[in-house]
Amino acid sequence: MRVAIVENTAFTQHGQVGVALHEAAARITRYRPWLDGVLPDPGSFEALVVFGGEQSALADTTHPYLPRLAALMAAEAARGTATLGICLGAQILARGLGADNRLDAAREFGWHEVALTAAGRTDPVLQALPARFPIFEWHADTFTAPPGSLHLATSPRAAQQAFRVGRAGYGMQFHFEASRALVNDWTATFADLVERMEPGWTAALPGRAATAGAAADLHGLTIARAWVALV
Q1: Is residue 197 over pLDDT 90?
Q2: Which residues, including other chains, have CB under 8 Å from residue 120's CB and lie 6 or more apart?
Q3: Of 87, 26, 78, which is closest to residue 54 (Cα–Cα)?
Q4: What is the CATH number of domain 2-230?
Q5: Three-class SS state of 8
Q6: Distance (Å, rounded) from C-alpha 170 to C-alpha 165?
Q7: Are strands 47-50 and 82-86 parallel, antiparallel or unpaired?
Q8: How far is CA 118 from the centre of its chain?
Q9: pLDDT for res 30
Q10: How far is it, in rounded angstroms, from Cα 46 to Cα 23?
Q11: Domain extents for the chain?
Q12: Is 58 exposed, middle or buried (0-12, 13-18, 19+ CB in 10 A)?
């Protein structure tokens, strides 16, 4: 399978999504439009993955490719192409589908509990998960429900945690790709930032990783494998 991966920052790591794609022997082409503005051509891939970034989904002045990426994601999802947006990627997909992006309206950091909706409990990607499960979060922005989408998961701080449009177009606010190894790397790389987001995080990380983090690793890989199976 041909998979186009769009990276929105220099620090993108594919994590659990990368594991599942490599298990499926995917042929991956990476795009870094924050550097050169280049996006994949429609028809050049069987699946499209858009990862997170530090910018907002509305940062057109500093990242002028964002409107084109939003339109590409929405069009591919509507066409039935396996399309996945994670964190910022979900916010960009929501924008392309006509939702309202709400900046700095829902801050979450660390492993938090997410609950499946009734639709989520029967969704082909999420149905194998518990009704409530821990997963990693790192975001400040959120969005309204995209028109025509199915609401799949929610949390107290950010109601829109996951949605599906069409056969296989998914927006997931939470970082299910973030394994404990990836979270450890983020903590080391962005030590000052994570301490501002969650004071005491670094000291508490080993204990949290052993409990919620271990469970989240299993759930994240389950999600990744199930989405890849739709391709």
Answers
A1: no
A2: 126, 127, 151, 152, 153, 162
A3: 87
A4: 3.40.50.880
A5: coil
A6: 6
A7: parallel
A8: 21
A9: 98
A10: 16
A11: 2-230
A12: middle
